[in-house]
Every structure is written in structure tokens, then in C-alpha cells.
Design a protein that fits this description.
homodimer, Arc Repressor Mutant, subunit A, Aspartate Aminotransferase, domain 2, eight-stranded mixed β-sheet, 18 helices
């Protein structure tokens, strides 16, 4: 990817009269001026700054001053120097503030291979900056928006309309993420001891939410190729679940996508019954091949969709939504006050910005994930040839099958060595999936390589069918981040 | 209060080379430059701008250009013109964007006298701006902070240390507000059918949360002067509640403050028992007299405190905290994932800013509330002389006692006339408090006057003991906002 460059004269224009902006030495004033441009998005990220000499000339100051300003910015994390591409604009990273924020905590040496999440792209900061400019309009109000603010609900509705599902903001309610949406659905529509149908395996926190609500999970096994229509219809008919929680698009952890025919049968089966079908669409944006032709979403009174910003954009943007028939939305809003009084307005405004125009964030994320997925698949196949892992249709992880049911023990041993794993049983109930491990491809290449190296060492050769020839490959590991 | 003034030369310095900053006509460039200064806090709010003539001279442009820029800013809500004090910097208000955000929705004519909340002060925007500058340090991380981020937890801990309660950030967990904190406590420590002791009356949403958790509320009546020690101790001993939810500081709705001796007896009584005592401190900052000498907070393993930013600062800052023994915090964090995955980082950073230095926001709020409380008391006593209302020690509302148990009917009739009321029974269980109405003093004077006028007209003279002499007073109503 070619580096974007900003000329000295263009930078001069954006800087304005930087020298008068603050008191103190000139280099500090210049650093402050540049920092503000980066922070409010007038100077994009990863842009190459002019050379010190040409900038000094354009600004009519000494090169020493420019040099000192760049050093200050580099120290504060707003400039990163690269051997080939020069001084690039940046945002301070967690490591520069010494926090333990990275998924791979360098100080402790622990690698978190149990969580499948990604850092924020630069678009997130720009969206927050725009949101902050729009926020004051809300200050005279009380700030409670139990349904969510109109900008956000409109942006979500537009997203569904683009997919061909007629949606107004009356179909949409803001939540603190998809998990919070599920908790609210359970509180509103389900009673203790009710049955809740789930994919098996499924998202672990969803199982926890169902159990915490006092309900009985009704697991329907997934086959390697997807949903078993007959099994799911039989469970719907025979057990009359009050709610069905299904991850139809880039299923977590398997990456599968549900067929249009299965969706149709589910809708038909649920019509006239008491079952609410909840589709968790958290991973929907994260396809790994070409843009899929998702089946046009079906509308029906009892179909509910959960969305989230956290996997598509950033986990720190803690906001999601429920898309449902306005009758259901009304009941959800009434029930909400027993859990919380609403979602922060600023988060909603930032999310609305990203939903309406993500500035290429999703494309960039998918490209990155595609590369990391292929890379992880490659090193797993090399280092652990007896394991079976396929390229998923989407999502953030591989669902690797082991030759023997030893996932929990393997996870425990890796944990002692500083590698946190999500063993298969975490994704099921009753001790299922001891033959499986979820391997996220969200970490940089080097860290995935370290993780697989530890895995291969713990998973001794006597368990594997081939020699662990992993070491050769680890030498030319690319860092994908 | 004297208006702060900014000179033309000082403004010139802050503006920098505004003309080069954007393309388009000069007046627009100037408006953009000024708008940015206001938005990022370099130009404070309610500052008087220089006269058009002197600014034009200083900038070396025509007065027409300055005039057009000011007109643009006024139109966008960033400048407010006042007859005496000239053009003041401002932030756009909800009315300027036409939203239905005001507590008193001018379009519909409805007055919300059921909600006790306040608009945001200018410090809130400044805190968000600072938080936005600090946010990028979190971007490389996954953004999930189930416990809360360190800056926020440290700021809350410091707040308790100032009050004399030894607290580290290990005692603190971030929540989506106090109500969310209560929901999490109920989920973690209480089972269906457990008893939960409550003040009677109490905060309505707390009752809802307790019922939604399947628990049995155990109401202990408050007397007009406060808590009944014998009643509360008898309930603690005899009924062994699993949790006691108490609003000890500026009780909602009565405004009462719990005596130190009662707190001491509660702590002693609960020690060694299974009862967790939860103090909701949402209203603690909002005293109406001189700063009270709160009893030093007691520490004990089973005492939990709920805090919130929403009443002290703004309801749109949807964040609060739980302060508890680290053992309890650990259990709460484990249980959290069944409800949500954490609180937005930006909200936490903004809240930390305000907690550490509120820029006088709380003092200003208390002064405003003091005036509005006295004003409301005055017009209620004039218009409804048979009602009994006292000046509360703190909080946001009067708890008015009617001569007869007619609150629900009164509320219904007022509702038909566009005045939403919170009738007494909403604050209790089993139909109690039909003799009471909560009257918030959070609205501007004119709106409180309109509300009381409607109340007095509905509450007919045959119910009152005196003549409704309200009309005379309504002429010289002050607008307190």
C-alpha cells in the first residue's frame, strides 16, 4: 500500500498560526499544533509528514525546532518513524502509555488466544470526533434515551433497508451490545424454566445469559456443513421453545452460514407458535471471501435481530441494537428500566456515523482478517497436521477438531505456559466438544505463531500423526498488523 | 455574574490562520474557525465576543464578513445574542435542532413533571473533549473492560478517600448507572423469592428491578423525620433479607438523610448475617443547605455503595459505579457477562475528568436547585395551601402530602391536560402513598409555575382549605434557567 504524503505547503495551511496558539518554546507550539490536527482528524493517520528540512523552510524556522517538535510527537505517540516511509502520523498506542491493554500483554508474556477481538481502526476516532461536535444539541435534554436516540436508530434502520428489509426507526432500540440485547430479550419474553433453543456449539456468553435467566437451553447440534433442518424443526415442534437463539451469519465459533431454505422453514415453523426467533448478527459484516449474497432478511412479527458494533468496528464502542417489530420494541423498552436506563448518547452518535459511512473500515478489517485467517490455517496445518481446520465463511476464528477429546486438558497445560485458550466445552453444554478448540485469527501474525508454537509443544508428537515441522516456518512469519 | 470578555487580539491569536483553513467564502471560514475553537474548548462558553467593528479591524477584513460569520454562528447555535451583554459563545441547544428532547416538549405542550432530571452543564462537554484526546491510547486494545478502566476506577476511589473511606481501584467497578449496578447486584447475590429490604417509599425503578429478579420486597416505612430504627432492625432480624436497598443520602423521593446512629446499627446488625447492605448514593452530591457533615462512611465486607453521574452531572452520561469489598467485586465481574460486556471507555474517561475536577459544575447545580426548590415550595404553598411540603435536605424533588388519598386520580386528570405526574403509589408497593405526590424542582421556574397552575386547577377548591391565590404570584415568576 502506497504511503500518503502531505506537502509542506499543505501542512502549513492546515496548521494556521501555530506559533501564536500557545505560550512556550516554538518547538512545543508546533508539536501542539500538529497534535491537534491529528486528534481532530484534519490530518489523517499514517500520512507521511514532510522532511524536517523542507518543513523548516516552509515555516520559516530552524530545522532544530522542527526536529525537536517531531521528537516530542514521537515520544507522545503521535508520530511513528519508519526506516523506509519516514515520519508517519499516528495515535498513541497502549504500549506507549504502559497499560495492560493489548490482547497480548507483553509484560506478563501472556497471550490471550481465548478472546476473538480486534483493535480499533482510525475511523473510530473520527466518528467519535464528529459525535462530540453533535453532542451539545442534547445537553438541554435530560439525556435519558431508553429507546435510543433517533440518529442511531435511523442509521440502523438504513442498514437494514439497504439489505432489502423494510425498517423504520420504530423497529430499532439501542442496547449496550448484542449480549445486553439478549439479556433484555430474556428478561422481557422468557420466564424461568422456559426452554431456549440454541445452536450447539454456540457463543459461550449466550449460554451463560440463558442459564442466569433460569431457563433450560435446548441444544440443536450443528453438522460440519451447517444446520440440520430436521433436527431443528423437530425441536421447534416437540419442545415448543419460548425463544430460539441462532447465529445464522458467520456462526461463532464455526463460521458457518445458514441456508436460505432453513431460514424459511424456521420462519414458517415459528409462525403462529409462541417461539421468538433471535438472530445474532454480530459477525454478519465479517465475511472472508467475496461479498456473500445473503438471503434477503425475512420479516415476521416474531423474528428479532441483534446487532453490535464491537466485532465490526471496536469492542470499546459498547453499543448494539435490537431490530424487531414495533410491538416487541415497545415491550422491551418497558422492561428495560429494571436493567438500566439507556445507552450513552455520544456512543450512539459515533456508531451512527460509522454505520452510515465507515470510511472503508469494514473493507480494511475484512482484508486484514482474510490474510490472518489464511496465515493461521497454514501454520496450524504445518504444526498440527492431525488437527482438522477449515477456512470458515466468515467470523473471527477457526473451529479446529482434534483427533482425541483432550481440549480441556490441553487448555489447562497451555494456560500454565501463558497461552489462554478457549477449549470446546466452553461453547456447549454437558461437556460436549472436548474434541474442539476455537483458534481466533485476530492477533498479529507473530503472536499467532507464538501461540501455535506453544500449542504444538504441549500437544506432544505422540498425539500427532506427523512431525512438528513448525520451526522452519516460524522464521519467515509476517506480522499482519 | 460578570460576563467574561475576549479581546479582538486574543481571539485573533487563537484563531490562527483561519482564512486558509477551509475553502469557500471568508465569512464561512471565519465561522468554521470560531466554531472549532468553541467545540474543542479553546474558547470557553458564555464568553462575550468582540464587537463586529473591532474584530473586523483586527482581522483586516470587512465588517460585513464578520457580521455574516456571526449570523451563521448564531443560526447554528454557537453564538447567542443578548441585548445587554452582546454576542456570547454557546453550544447548540436541542430546540435549535428541533428535537423533542426537552423535559418540557414545547411542540406537544406536555410538561414532564414525573421525571426529576437536569440538563448538562458546560463542564460536561469539556470533559468529553478531554476524554476524546485520551481515548486513542485504548484503540490498540480490544476495548472490553468488564471491571472498568483504571482512570475511572481511580477517580471513584479518590472520591471515597476524600470522604475518609479507604478505597483502592480494586473496590470499584464501572456500571451503566446506579440502576444497572442494582440489577447486577441482584443477579449476582440474590435468588428468586429472596427478601430484599427497601425504604418505603423508595425509588420506583428499584422496586421494578427487585420484582423483575423474582424477589420479595420487604418495605420498611419511613417516618416524616426519617428512618425508624426499631422497625428496620426488627425487619433485619426477623426476616433475614438477602439484600437491603437503602437511599441514605437525600432519599428519593423524601429528601431525608439517615442518621449516623442508624447507619451504625445497620452495620452492626448485618455483620455476621447474610444481608448485603446497598446504599444508593445517586443523590449524595445534591444537598440544598450548607455542605452537610455526612457521617464518615463505614467500611465492612457486606456494605456496597452505588454511585452515578446522571443526577450530579447529566443523565446522558450513562455511567455509574459499584464500590464494594474486592471479594464482592470479583463475583460481580464474573456475573456481569450474562448482562453485558462492559461500559464504554470514552464515557468512563469523561466521568473520571468530572469526578477529579468538575470545574464548579456541582456548586452551580446546587445553587440552581436551591433557588428552584424555594421557588416551587413558595408557589405550591400559595396555590395549594392545604398540601404539606417541606424543604428537603437534598435531592431533586418535594414529597408533598395531600389532605386526602387521591394522588392517582389527580395524576390521571393532570395527564389528560398535558401534565405528567409521579403519583405516590409509584414509590411504594401495595397501593401505598395515595396521599403523596412527588414534585420535582428540576424544571425552569416558568414551567414549574405552569405545572402548579394546572395542578391547582385540577385539585379543585372544594378539596383545598383556602382560596387558590396562585394567579397573583404567577405574574412575577422568575425563570431559573
Amino acid at each position: 500500500m502506497a504511503t500518503r504524503i502531505i506537502s509542506a505547503s499543505s501542512l502549513l495551511r492546515r496548521l494556521g498560526s501555530w506559533r501564536q496558539a500557545t505560550v512556550g518554546p516554538a518547538y512545543q507550539a508546533l508539536a501542539v499544533g500538529l497534535r491537534l490536527l491529528i486528534l481532530d482528524g484534519r490530518l489523517p493517520l499514517a500520512v507521511r509528514l514532510p522532511g524536517e528540512r523542507s518543513l523548516a523552510k516552509a515555516l520559516g524556522i530552524s530545522r532544530t525546532t522542527v526536529s525537536a517538535a517531531f521528537a516530542q510527537l514521537e515520544n507522545d505517540g503521535f508520530v511513528q518513524k519508519h526506516e523506509r516511509s519516514g515520519a508517519l502520523t499516528a495515535l498513541p498506542s497502549a504500549s506507549s502509555r504502559g497499560g495492560a491493554l493489548l490482547t497480548h500483554d507483553r509484560e506478563s508474556g501472556v497471550i490471550d488466544f481465548a478472546t476473538a477481538t480486534m483493535p480499533a481502526g482510525p475511523q473510530v476516532h473520527a466518528a467519535y470526533a464528529k459525535a462530540l461536535a453533535a453532542l451539545p444539541a442534547y445537553f438541554p435534554g435530560h439525556g435519558y434515551e431508553p429507546l435510543g436516540c433517533r440518529e442511531f436508530r435511523e442509521a440502523v434502520a438504513e442498514r437494514y433497508r439497504r439489505e432489502g428489509l423494510a425498517t423504520s426507526c420504530n423497529h430499532v432500540m439501542a442496547t449496550h451490545g448484542a449480549q445486553n440485547g439478549l439479556a433484555l430479550l430474556l428478561r422481557t419474553f422468557v420466564r424461568p424454566l422456559d426452554r431456549v433453543l440454541i445452536d450447539h456449539p454456540t457463543y459461550p456468553n449466550a449460554i451463560d445469559a440463558i442459564l442466569a435467566a433460569g431457563c433450560r437451553p435446548l441444544p440443536v447440534p450443528l453438522t460440519p456443513s451447517g444446520w440440520d433442518d430436521e433436527a431443528i424443526m423437530a425441536a421447534m415442534r416437540g419442545e415448543a421453545p419460548r425463544l430460539a437463539y441462532i447465529i445464522a451469519d458467520h456462526h461463532n465459533p464455526t463460521g458457518l452460514v445458514m441456508q436460505a431454505t432453513t431460514r424459511q422453514r424456521l420462519t414458517t415453523q415459528a409462525t403462529g407458535s409462541d417461539t421468538i426467533i433471535v438472530y445474532d448478527e454480530t459477525m454478519r459484516d465479517l465475511w472472508l471471501g467475496n461479498e456473500p449474497g445473503f438471503p434477503k432478511p425475512q420479516d415476521a412479527h416474531h423474528i428479532v435481530r441483534l446487532g453490535s458494533m464491537s466485532k465490526s468496528f471496536w469492542g470499546g464502542l459498547r453499543i448494539g441494537w435490537i431490530r424487531a417489530h414495533p410491538d416487541l420494541i415497545k415491550k422491551l423498552v418497558e422492561a428495560r428500566a429494571s436493567l438500566d436506563l439507556g445507552v450513552p448518547i455520544l456512543e450512539q452518535l459515533a456508531a451512527a456515523e460509522l454505520l452510515l459511512d465507515d470510511g472503508g473500515a469494514l473493507d480494511a478489517r475484512r482484508t486484514l482478517l482474510r490474510g490472518r485467517c489464511d496465515y493461521l490455517l497454514g501454520i496450524v496445518r504445518d504444526a498440527l497436521p492431525s488437527w482438522r481446520a477449515h477456512r470458515p465463511e466468515g467470523g473471527l476464528s477457526l473451529w479446529a477438531e482434534l483427533p482425541r477429546p483432550i481440549a480441556t486438558g490441553l487448555g489447562d497445560k497451555c494456560g500454565e505456559l501463558g497461552l489462554h485458550l478457549a477449549a470446546g466445552p466452553r461453547f456447549g453444554i454437558g461437556g460436549a466438544f472436548e474434541r474442539f478448540i476455537r483458534l481466533p485469527f485476530t492477533l498479529p501474525g507473530k503472536e499467532m505463531a507464538r501461540a501455535v508454537s506453544i500449542l504444538a509443544n504441549v500437544y506432544r508428537p505422540d498425539h500427532s500423526t506427523g512431525r512438528p515441522n513448525y520451526r522452519n516456518r516460524s522464521r519467515d512469519v509476517a506480522d499482519f498488523y
